Every structure is written in structure tokens, then in C-alpha cells.
Amino acid sequence: ATGIRIERLSKRYGSGDTAVLALKDVNMQVAPGEVVGLIGPSGSGKSTLLKSLGAVIDPSAGRMQLGDEVIFDDGWKVRDLRALRRDKIGFVFQAPYLIPFLDVTDNVALLPMLAGMRNDAARARALELLTALDVQHRARAMPSQLSGGEQQRVAIARGLVNRPPVILADEPTAPLDSERALAVIRLLNDMAQRFQTAVIVVTHDEKIIPTFKRIYHIRDGVTFEEAGEGRGFD
Ligand code: ADP
Ligand code: ADP
Fold first, then answer.
1. Ligand 2, atom 20: nearest CA belongs to which residue?
2. Looking at ligand 2, which residue's alpha carbon is closest to its atom 27?
3. What is the ipTM metric for this complex?
4. What spacing in Å lies between the alpha carbon of 2 and ligand 2's midpoint?
5. Which of 127, 141, 189, 234 could form a disulfide with 145 if both were Cys (CB 3.0 to 4.6 A apart)?
6. Which of 21, 48, 57, 93 to mutate to test the pocket of ligand 2 (most atoms within 8 A of CB)?
7. What's the 179 CA to ligand 1 centre distance in angstroms?
């Protein structure tokens, strides 16, 4: 498994005088088991990069590889995007987007159930993640009964539950206090190591930025890597 590999990735919106070059020859590599941060000001290209990796939009040029599969190569792309998103990528969005008529456990267990896991096994796996995220006491509650931070932790559990090889997280800790934000990062690191997941966390959350061993900065569609002594948990 390769994790995530992005080579010379470009994205142009529109054409002619009004064209915007949102990504310019971006190179990134995230190893299996690694959690990296992606930081940049508003308009720098973070969403465009995540949406390209998540096969939500088509890049203009370059190459992307997820796990052992090339998903985009200079205009060519994999056919079955839905299967790609379902089997390869765990998304954690800024907003939780929980299903209002399913309780917390079933919101998390739904994906493994749809993938064919037995209901009790799927619920057990959901509960394990809810426990790691300290929301197990809300397991039978409905989403509308939860606080914003609780909903976000449930959404994080849902993004991890299928153990995808790639996790894309967009500001996952924004509504959380310091302790819980750090617990989320610890969980992402644990999951990454246990299941050899490659994780990208888009964030401007000062609480978690010091925990990344490696950070990519993005500015005007160009990425720069920062590796630091003293970065990381240990
Ligand atoms: P955030 O940085 O919080 O994700 P953005 O303002 O960058 O929010 O983008 C919100 C949504 O609007 C995204 O889906 C983005 O692709 C889209 N968007 C951003 N800029 C433009 C634009 N100039 N024209 C059309 N859509 C845009
Ligand atoms: P960020 O997520 O870092 O805020 P985006 O990826 O949303 O940045 O945007 C990068 C650049 O691309 C910005 O100049 C934005 O206005 C532009 N952009 C984003 N989405 C669109 C779109 N759908 N159409 C046109 N321009 C867009």
C-alpha cells in the first residue's frame, strides 16, 4: 500500500480571462500509518485539494494514487467513483451531517451494515469507536439531542468505521475543546497505525497543529512541506 501520492496536480476553474488556477503542480505524499496536517489561508486551495482526492471534482492535470490504485492520471480517471469513495475513503466534514432518524449507534454502524457486516458486529464496532471518542453514553440518543461537539465526534466515528485506507478530514476538531480535540488526533493516529491508514487533516486549529509530525502548507495553490524537530506527540 502506498498511502496517498499526489504528483504535479493542477486544477483550473473556468477558462480564459476569468480562469482560476486553484492548484499548481502540487506534490504530496502520505505514507500508510501517517497523519499529516494541511494548513493554508482561506482561498488557498485546501477544499479543491480535498475534493480532488475525494473524487468529488476532476483535477485538470497530474496524477493521484490512493492505496495501490491510481485514481487519476492526466485526464484519465477510475470508472467507478462511487465504489472508490465507499471502499477507499473516509470523509470527516466540518459539519456532522448525521442522519436525523437514526440513533447515534446506527449512524455509525450504517456504513459497515451496507458493506455487508452483520448488524450486531457493525454496532459493536460502532460502539468501540464511540467509546474511544467518549460519546458512548449517547449511543442510543438521536442526533438532535446531542451537542455540537458530540455530533462532531459521532461524525468522526462514522468516517473511521469502515477502516478505509485513506481518511480526509476537513477541520474535524473546530467545535471541540482542547482535551477532546487532542483525543480525536490521538484516535486518528491510533487508527492510522492499526490499519495502515493515510490521513490528511485540514485545520487551522492551534490546539492540534503542534501534534503533527509533518505539515503541508498551501498558499495560492502551491504546497510546501514543513517537517520539524520536536513535532508530534512523543
Ligand atoms: P471553506 O474554505 O470554508 O471550505 P470556501 O469559501 O472556500 O469555504 O468554499 C465554499 C464552497 O464554495 C466550496 O465548495 C468551494 O468550492 C466553493 N467556491 C469557493 N470559491 C468559489 C468561486 N469563486 N466560485 C464558485 N464556487 C466557489
Ligand atoms: P480553501 O478551501 O483553501 O478556502 P478553495 O479550494 O475553496 O480554497 O479555493 C481555491 C481557489 O479556487 C479560490 O480562489 C476560490 O475562489 C477558487 N474556487 C474554488 N471553487 C471554485 C469554483 N467552483 N469555481 C471557481 N473558482 C473556485
1. 48
2. 13
3. 0.72
4. 28
5. 141
6. 48
7. 30
Q: Is the CB of 42 under 6 A from ligand 1?
A: yes
Considering only CA atoms, which of 136, 157, 19, 7 is closest in space to residue 74?
Answer: 7
pTM of the predicted protein model: 0.85
Residue 181 pairs in a beta bridge with none
Place of cell 469513495: 85
Please say if the pLDDT value at position 234 is more than 60: no
User: What's residue 229's pLDDT?
Assistant: 58
pLDDT value at residue 83: 87
131-157 confidence digits (pLDDT tens): 988 899 999 999 999 998 899 899 999
> Measured between alpha carbons, how far is 101 from 48 in angstroms, rounded to an integer?
31
Rounded CA separation 232/208 (Å): 10
CA of 131 to the centre of ligand 2 (A): 37
